[in-house]
Structure formats: C-alpha cells, structure tokens
C-alpha cells in the first residue's frame, strides 16, 4: 500500500470511532492498532500528506517561516523520552507542538522564540508518571530537560524553558517564582513569561481531546479563537 493510501486508510479508521462519553477506564482501548500491526501516522506524516490543508490556520502556517521550524522540531524529537500514554504521549505532544507553532505565528514570535517554544512543547510532559491531575509533573519535566541534547540553546535560554515548563501545570502566578528558582536572569524574564504563555495555551487547547477546554483560561486573545482548530486537529490526528 502506498504511503498516501495508508494515511487515508488510517484517517478513515479514526473517523469511524466514537470518542464521545468514553469512560475513563476505557482509554487504553480507544486506539486499537491498525490491521496488520501498522502504526497510525503521526502529525508530521499527516501534514506532509495535506490532511490538514482544509484548516485555515494550518494553510497559513505552511506559508510562514514557522512551518520549517516545526518540521525541524518534529525531525529531532526524541520520541523515546515521551510517555506511552494515549492521553499524554506522542499524539498529545505532536498536537501541542503544532498548536504552539500556530500560536507563535499569530503572536509574531521571533525565530529564536519559536525554536524555544517548540522545544518546551516537545518535552513539557516528560516528567509525567501517570495521567491524573498532577501539578508537580511540570517541575519534574523541567528538571529532566538538562539531560537532553540542547543544540543551539544557551544556558540562559534553558533556564527560561525550565521555568516555563515547570509553571505550565500550575497557576499563572507561579511563573516568576519558578524563574527565580531556575536562575532566569532579569533580562530574560520577558522571554520566560512569553514562553510560559505560549506553552500553556498550546497545551490547554489540546484539552479538547478530553472535552475539557475552557477558553477563558487561555492567555492570548487569538488563542481563544483556536478552539475549532484544535478540535479539527484532534479529530484528524488522534492515534
């Protein structure tokens, strides 16, 4: 079977599933493997196949410099460090990365800011040990970042990312406390706060997968208009 045909077949399998009102103890059965043991395609493959081209923001993203940054981030993603959970695993991370790229584009992030946000999106949940509500998983994820390859990321930028990742699972007011804890220089505080807002919005938008998104909790005004976009991405990319 050709690659595009595999993508189409996988999408059809996804569209045929009913995800509404799924009980919590049935999550492990939601995503059955494809026939013959084939894996469903991830976000990069679906982007390449044009499966999201009907989504206005993604069509705009394709025409922007953010798109190449996103594809590179997917190429270097250390998937072995991600959770195997169907809720907080690779599917969630790849969607958060895509939503993060859209947010960066809409908010006019610089090239450097985009790269840092995508890195934060990539590994924001590597400290998760379960799928329950856990405000400490952000801190565990932040502490684990230093063990990852950090090409092109300065020590000051890493501190900003760590503070943003640590704060993503807590109240917004905690960002400055984490900035102090991780030693973010005063001149980098604005960058730290920006990354935190972008990560929190991207992560929260993917709450559509559990039918628990409240747009009042999003930080950027333009993010609040992305609910339908997030729902469309999830519908096409759930694995």
Describe the model.
The chain has one domain: Hypothetical protein af1432. 52% of the residues lie in helices and 0% in strands. It has 11 helices and no strands. α5 crosses α10, α6 crosses α10 and α8 crosses α10. The N terminus is likely disordered.
Tertiary shape: globular
Helix percentage: 40-55%
Q: What's the total number of strands?
A: 0
Strand/helix succession: HHHHHHHHHHH
Helices, by number, come to: 11
CATH topology: Hypothetical protein af1432
The stretches of 5 or more residues where confidence is low (pLDDT under 50) are 1-38
| Largest sheet geometry | none
Distance between the termini: 19 Å
Structural class: mainly alpha
Mean pLDDT: 86
Overall structural domain count: 1
In the CATH hierarchy, the architecture is Orthogonal Bundle
| Rg calculated over all Cα atoms | 17 Å
Share of β-strand residues: under 5%
CATH hierarchy class name:
Mainly Alpha
Would you kindly provide a brief summary of this structure?
This protein is mainly alpha-helical. It has helices at residues 3-15, 43-48, 56-62, 65-75, 90-107, 111-123, 137-144, 155-167, 175-181, 189-205, 227-237.
Which key phrases capture this entry?
52% helix; disordered N terminus; 239 residues; single chain; Hypothetical protein af1432; mainly alpha
Secondary structure topology:
Elements: H1 3-15, H2 43-48, H3 56-62, H4 65-75, H5 90-107, H6 111-123, H7 137-144, H8 155-167, H9 175-181, H10 189-205, H11 227-237
Helix pairs in contact: 4-5, 4-6, 5-6, 5-10, 6-8, 6-10, 7-8, 8-9, 8-10
């Amino acid at each position: 079977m050709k690659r595009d045909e595999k993508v189409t077949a996988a999408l059809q399998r996804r569209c045929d599933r009913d995800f509404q009102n799924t009980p919590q103890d049935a999550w492990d059965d939601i995503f059955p493997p494809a026939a013959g043991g084939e894996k469903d395609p991830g976000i990069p493959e679906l982007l390449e196949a044009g499966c999201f081209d009907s989504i206005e923001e993604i069509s705009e993203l394709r025409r922007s410099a953010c798109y190449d940054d996103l594809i590179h981030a997917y190429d270097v993603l250390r998937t072995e460090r991600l959770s195997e959970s169907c809720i907080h695993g690779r599917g969630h991370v790849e969607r958060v990365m895509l939503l993060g790229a859209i947010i960066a584009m809409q908010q006019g992030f610089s090239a450097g800011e985009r790269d840092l946000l995508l890195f934060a999106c990539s590994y924001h949940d590597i400290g998760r040990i379960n799928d329950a509500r856990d405000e400490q998983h952000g801190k565990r994820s932040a502490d684990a970042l230093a063990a990852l390859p950090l090409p092109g990321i300065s020590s000051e930028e890493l501190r900003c990312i760590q503070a943003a990742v640590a704060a993503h699972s807590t109240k917004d007011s905690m960002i400055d406390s984490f900035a102090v804890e991780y030693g973010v220089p005063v001149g980098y505080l604005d960058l730290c706060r920006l990354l935190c807002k972008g990560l929190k919005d991207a992560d929260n938008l993917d709450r559509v997968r559990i039918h628990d998104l409240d747009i009042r909790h999003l930080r950027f005004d333009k993010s609040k208009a992305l609910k339908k976009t997030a729902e469309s991405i999830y519908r096409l990319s759930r694995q």
